[in-house]
Amino acid sequence: MPVVDVVIVGLGATGLAITEALASRTDCRIVGAADIQPGIAGAPLSLVVPGAPPVAVVVSVDELPDADVAVVATSSWVETIEPTLVACDVELAELLHHLSSVLVETVEIGGSLVRIMVRTADAVPVDCPGCLRR
Q: Which of 10, 41, 64, 90 makes an SS bond possible with 74, Cβ 3.0 to 4.6 Å?
């Protein structure tokens, strides 16, 4: 079974509970965490959540390592967390030649965001050119 790399954004009550649940799983690996609380930022995650890996809690999502999944537990309101969620900023015209080599499964439009879910014919993951920022 493949292991999914996960980052946690927000270590309030909900983020801590999710981190605790994920730390005991064998199908995912917590590779990073971010929180702006002064008492948590800079500390190893394992000191904040027993059983979690000793990755350093960073202040900014820009400091997080690459991951397969980001759990965002900073607010219950989408409008509040939209800046955190917008990690891929690319013109649609720039994507078109990339989309010709994949199978488009779904297209979701919400406000100024367009989310395109794709897969290759041979199930090989394809990176979005807008997300190649590192």
A: 10
Distance between alpha carbon 100 and the CA centroid of its chain, in Å? 25
In tens, the pLDDT along 50-67 reads 999 999 999 988 889 988
pLDDT tens digits, residue range 3-22?
A: 888 999 899 888 999 999 99
Q: Which of 73, 61, 57 is nearest to 14 (CA)?
A: 73
Domain that holds residue 12: 4-85
Q: What is the C-alpha separation between 83 and 77, in angstroms, rounded?
A: 12
42 in the same domain as 22: yes
pTM of the model: 0.62
One domain, residues 56 and 77:
yes
pLDDT at 99: 57
Number of structural domains in the chain: 2
| Alpha-carbon span 46 to 109, nearest angstrom | 38
Contact 63, 34 (CB under 8 A): yes
Max CA-CA distance within the chain?
48
Any idea what the CATH number is for the domain that residue 39 is in? 3.40.50.720
